[in-house]
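Quick one, tokens below:
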């Protein structure tokens, strides 16, 4: 078994034939939906940008909840510590 065959996982001719068949099927589906390769790349880019923005939005909401809760919890904690300190 040659290094090329080991790398490709099959004989080069069979790999080329498989790639041609899969490429034809993918091209057929993309044409049916009216997609171009750039549409796919823009879709992937938009997905990661939206994921990035969503992550920071979630972090912003999380920190907002912490600050909102801390506005009640911290003063209550301080008042309880002062009340228990006198005893």
């Amino acid at each position: 078994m040659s290094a090329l065959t080991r790398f490709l996982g099959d004989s080069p001719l069979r790999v080329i034939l498989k790639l041609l068949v899969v490429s034809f099927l993918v091209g057929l589906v993309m044409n049916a939906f009216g997609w171009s390769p750039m549409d796919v790349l823009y879709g992937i880019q938009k997905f990661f940008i939206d994921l990035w923005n969503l992550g920071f939005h979630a972090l912003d909401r999380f920190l907002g909840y912490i600050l909102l809760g801390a506005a009640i919890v911290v003063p209550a904690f301080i008042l309880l510590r002062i009340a228990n300190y006198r005893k």
